[in-house]
């Protein structure tokens, strides 16, 4: 009896997946991308941003499997997503740089001499500054590109 229940549950889940993928459309994809846009405006956390990206990717993938998809729309939302991914990559790089510099300095103090500490600290500071400068240029461009592609996706629906 338990086996029959598991089979029915599995079939229900499979049916739900196919039904939901059949009805996933442009509005679902746009809703997911708009959530990302809204989260950026309210200074969301990195982890929340990543969760929203994952949700949007699922919606895009479901839409992409449709046989009668709007190619203009699909290409625009994929480009939008790529821009949001670029933003995430640079955000992560900035966070990693901020964390690694103090840890590296502390490790060198324990195991290195003062010249090594000074040289590495100088290098890490230059690297951190370079990452910040790059992010100051790339991150706004990524968001601008995402916004442009999102607008294009809306136009493709007309």
Summarize the structure.
The protein is mostly helical and 158 residues long. Helices cover 90% and strands 0% of the residues. Helix 2 packs antiparallel against helix 3 (46-64) and helix 2 packs parallel to helix 4.
Would you kindly provide a written description of the structure presented here, covering whatever features stand out?
With 158 residues, the chain is mainly alpha-helical. The chain has helices at 2-23, 26-41, 46-64, 71-111, 114-157. The chain has one domain. Helix 2 (26-41) packs across helix 5. It starts with a helix and ends with a helix.
Number of domains: 1
* End-to-end separation: 52 Å
- What is the makeup of the main sheet? none
Classify the secondary structure makeup into a structural class: mainly alpha
Which consecutive residue ranges, at least 5 long each, have pLDDT under 50? 19-23
Strand content: under 5%
The tally of helices reads: 5
The shape, in one word, is elongated
Number of strands: 0
Helix fraction by DSSP (H/I, runs of at least 4): over 70%
C-alpha Rg (nearest Å): 22 Å
The mean pLDDT is 82
Order of helices and strands: HHHHH
């Amino acid at each position: 009896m338990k086996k029959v229940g598991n089979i029915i549950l599995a079939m229900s889940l499979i049916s739900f997946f196919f039904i939901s993928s059949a009805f996933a459309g442009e509005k679902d994809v746009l809703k997911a991308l708009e959530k990302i846009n809204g989260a950026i405006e309210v200074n969301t956390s990195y982890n929340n941003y990543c969760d929203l990206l994952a949700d949007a990717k699922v919606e895009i993938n479901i839409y992409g499997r449709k046989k009668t998809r709007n190619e203009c729309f699909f290409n625009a939302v994929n480009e939008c997503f790529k821009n949001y991914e670029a933003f995430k990559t640079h955000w992560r790089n900035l966070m990693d740089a901020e964390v690694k510099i103090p840890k590296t300095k502390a490790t060198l103090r324990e195991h290195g001499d003062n010249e090594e500490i000074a040289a590495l600290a100088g290098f890490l500071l230059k690297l951190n500054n370079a990452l910040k400068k790059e992010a100051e240029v790339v991150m706004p461009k990524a968001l601008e590109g995402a916004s442009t592609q999102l607008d294009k996706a809306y136009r493709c629906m007309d």
